[in-house]
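LAB NOTEBOOK - FOLDING QUEUE
OPERATOR: T.R.
BATCH SIZE: 2
PURPOSE: Compare the predicted structure-token outputs for two unrelated chains run back to back under identical settings.
PRIORITY: normal
REVIEWER: second-year student, initials M.K.

ITEM 1
FIELD SEQUENCE / FIELD STRUCTURE:
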Amino acid sequence: MDAIIETKELTHLYSAGTPFAHTALQGVDFSAQPGEYLAIIGRTGSGKSTLIQHLNGLLKPTSGQVLFEGTDIFESKERTRQVRCQVGLVFQYPEYQLFEETVYQDIAFGPKNMGLDPDEVDRRVRQSARFVGLEAGVLEKSPFDLSGGQKRRVAIAGVIAMEPRVLVLDEPTAGLDPSGSARILDNIRTYHEEKNACVILVSHSMEEVAREAQRLVVIHRGTIPFSGPPSEVFSHGEELETMGLGVPAMTRVFARLRALGVDVPASVYTVPQAREAVLAALHRGPRKTGLWLCGERKKEPADMEFSAPFAENGMEQASSDEKGAE
């Protein structure tokens, strides 16, 4: 399948030709497929934001290309404008960009600038409000009367209303509490599933990207050292640690179990996967897996039916503890 958006040998220098010149991206080859949900991870200053600002033409490469459906997005001003309607970019803390008198007007700003007729603008406003979980009564309120989480959803709805085929979000859950973060991620997932849009999520949270993304792209010092499914990327735990990223908590737990001689898989990075892995280990038997509880006697096969519920409850408690820690 051909990429919907990609970069070829993308290099970007800030303050080029001055003593303060800094290379933010160096020869980056990046691609995203239609309908894909991928995440870009990297520590602060790694080049994540610089990369995504190239994807809809906010930044122009020092060298290299940015292609949308195989065509350079900078081949003409008209082409760049078209791509900006197809590649929606939600900045970090987008609620600071709200400015209209009502929520409806704020969401409608993008569709109106696309030259759509009033009926189509209205359809898009109401549909995007539904995608982000805003009730109809909220549309006539001032955006400045809403909570922080609601403002964030209004800002995301304003981008979704343009119905981009590629939706790029820079730290969309930054500064939100766990319940607010979960709602935002649910909204993004709904848009991805219903519109079959390509979603590119930028995040610092390893747990977040492990749960949501089909593929991870790691950016480090302006290059991409790793790209692939979460299980593959998180298998490079030591390298990620040296990059200041780390791995999900569950991956660390299972790495420790394996170091202790327990026969469990290494590619575990979410609580549901951990639950399944522990249950499978218990059903194989503690003698084979090395999974013994402290001071536990040898179990007979008849005892095993009690182990699975215990493990399930234990993993549910681990999930609660993990959410509390966040």
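ITEM 2
FIELD SEQUENCE / FIELD STRUCTURE:
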Amino acid sequence: MIEPENTPNLNNISNINNIESARRRGIYLLPNLLTTGALFAGFYAIVAGMQAHFEHAAIAIFVAMIMDTLDGRVARLTGTQSAFGAQYDSLSDMVCFGLTPALVSYNWGLSSLGKPGWLAAFIYAAATALRLARFNTQLGSADKRYFVGLPCPIAAAVVAGMVWMGVELEISGERISVIVALITVMMGILMVSNLRYYSFKEIDFKGSVPFVAVLAVVLLFSVIAWDPPVILFVMSILFALSGPGLWIKNRYWKGSSAA
């Protein structure tokens, strides 16, 4: 029997009811406010890069990283997670850690390469979009102890740290444009790779910790404050290389020990 064309679709009715229910509930303010702060910092970094204020642009990317870390943690700690917040955070990540680092690195050093320069920036931006899309589709099924592919905030930290360190050491991006292109493309490749990175999600921020852990955090902040651009760049590079290092360890060290 053929259904009449005006017969209501139950799935559509269910979707409409869900949308109306979400509208009535509203959205949670605190985590989405932090996401908006991250988005603002990312957009400011783009504007600062266009005006050749590269140090300000790099710092703004790191501020966006802090905001992005806080919004998820705050949402989980306060029980204010929502589908809207997850989608908003993903779109903000694309701007802050995809378009922003690509444009800042292009304005700082890649533009002197011509077409290869903007292609390198595009590869990074496209890789970020692919990384985020894969992450969103694997929610709930992936091992929470690891990220698959380099997290895009860390990739952005490498690019931002490179720019900030270059400005601090008075190194022109145009002089090392080839190195800038290689690092930018490499970060894009690591993001879409199948390499595993520790997620540190097993850390319990609600529970108590030993006094030594608090002392370690104080020492970490002190080390970063000693020379922020260099230390942050080195820390980001080390984490980016931890994925290939973990792969080598699992492939060769375990194989040799088994033999």
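REVIEWER COMMENT (ITEM 2): The two ends are 66 Å apart (CA to CA).
FOLLOW-UP: none requested
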